[in-house]
């Protein structure tokens, strides 16, 4: 009798843990975006130690299947940009995400600011221009 | 007779030049970006851009009244990949002013917003239509 009870307890505990895990994973998925977005976030964090960062997956605005991770807009505020002209800041981000840009990420719109610029004018990330067809990639 | 020989010689020289330059090679792009003060590599054509970012570049240059050479990368995969390697820049559009790579849509937009574009154009002898409109208006208000 005792064993049965224990068994049931274990089962219900397992079910509860599974439920919690799934919920957690789903929450993480919806909050932090897909795997590519997460990878971009991690790589930029590691390379530029940004004081502020926003990543927007704009793929839904383009001629690609739903759930794609091909078009991104990123805002990075980092001390690493201090004293660098715009083109070099963009190159820094592009180099950091070189692998992603070669494999699946097709469009990357970048706003790169220094912490001083950011505190002067913290802007909302603007939406990119509307897609005009392209070739689905 | 002499003229005909000269013509033949120049056309022969030209064909040799074109034969020796492989499409998509560094020399090919060196030549392409030198053909005009402003050169744009984009998706689609200025009249029918096929991408929002390329369209933004077209609109900016239209506002400034700048004439430029546009190359549609969707027409030739060799150029599409080649220009990315040549500029070491992973995305299209790409803008060249006076043979120098300036950047893509984001950078051009920012240069347009902070007035840097007018300065860069002036450096290569192009007077922006926006600047002319501004001085024109200034004259009027002075009167």
TrEMBL record, chain A:
Query: Which Pfam families does the record cross-reference, listed alphabetically?
Result: BolA (PF01722)
Alphabetized InterPro entries for the sequence: BolA, BolA-like_sf, BolA/IbaG_stress_morph_reg
**Protein family (similarity comment):** Belongs to the BolA/IbaG family.
Q: From which organism does this entry originate? A: Portunus trituberculatus (Swimming crab)
What protein name is recorded for this chain? BolA-like protein 1
What GO CC annotations are associated with the protein?
A: iron-sulfur cluster assembly complex; mitochondrion
Automatic annotation (TrEMBL), chain B:
Q: Which SUPFAM superfamilies match?
A: Thioredoxin-like
Q: Which GO terms describe its molecular function?
A: 2 iron, 2 sulfur cluster binding; metal ion binding
Name any GO cellular component annotation: mitochondrial matrix
Q: Which domain of life is it from?
A: Eukaryota
Q: Do you know which Pfam families this protein is assigned to?
A: Glutaredoxin (PF00462)
Q: Which UniProt keywords apply?
A: 2Fe-2S, Iron, Iron-sulfur, Metal-binding, Redox-active center
Q: Does the keyword Iron-sulfur apply?
A: yes
> Is Metal-binding one of the keywords UniProt gives this record?
yes
Q: Which residues form a coiled coil?
A: none
Q: Where is the Glutaredoxin domain?
A: 38-102
Which species? Answer: Portunus trituberculatus
State the protein's name: Glutaredoxin-related protein 5, mitochondrial
InterPro entries in UniProt: Glutaredoxin, GRX_PICOT-like, Monothiol_GRX-rel, Thioredoxin-like_sf
Q: Which NCBIfam families match?
A: Grx4 family monothiol glutaredoxin
């Amino acid at each position: 009798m005792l064993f049965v009870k224990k068994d049931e307890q274990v089962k219900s505990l397992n079910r509860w843990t599974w439920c919690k895990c799934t919920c957690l994973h789903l929450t993480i998925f919806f909050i932090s975006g897909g795997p590519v977005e997460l990878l971009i976030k991690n790589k930029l964090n590691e390379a530029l130690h940004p004081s502020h960062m926003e990543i927007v997956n704009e793929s839904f605005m383009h001629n690609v299947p739903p759930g794609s991770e091909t078009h991104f807009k990123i805002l990075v505020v980092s001390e690493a940009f201090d004293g660098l002209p715009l083109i070099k800041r963009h190159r820094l981000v592009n180099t950091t995400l070189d692998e992603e840009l070669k494999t699946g990420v097709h469009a990357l719109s970048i706003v790169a600011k220094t912490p001083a610029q950011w505190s002067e004018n913290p802007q909302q990330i603007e939406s990119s221009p509307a897609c005009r067809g392209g070739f689905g990639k | 007779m002499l003229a005909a020989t000269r013509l033949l010689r120049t056309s022969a020289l030209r064909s040799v030049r074109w034969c020796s330059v492989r499409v998509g090679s560094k020399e090919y792009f060196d030549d392409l970006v030198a053909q005009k003060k402003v050169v744009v590599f984009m998706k689609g054509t200025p009249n029918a851009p096929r991408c929002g970012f390329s369209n933004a570049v077209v609109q900016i240059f239209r506002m400034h009244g700048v004439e430029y050479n546009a190359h549609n990368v969707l027409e030739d995969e060799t150029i599409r990949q080649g220009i990315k390697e040549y500029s070491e820049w992973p995305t299209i559009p790409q803008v060249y002013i006076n043979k120098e790579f300036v950047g893509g849509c984001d950078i051009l937009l920012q240069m347009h917003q902070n007035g840097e574009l007018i300065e860069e154009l002036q450096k290569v002898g192009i007077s922006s239509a926006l600047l002319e409109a501004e001085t024109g208006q200034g004259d009027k208000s002075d009167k």
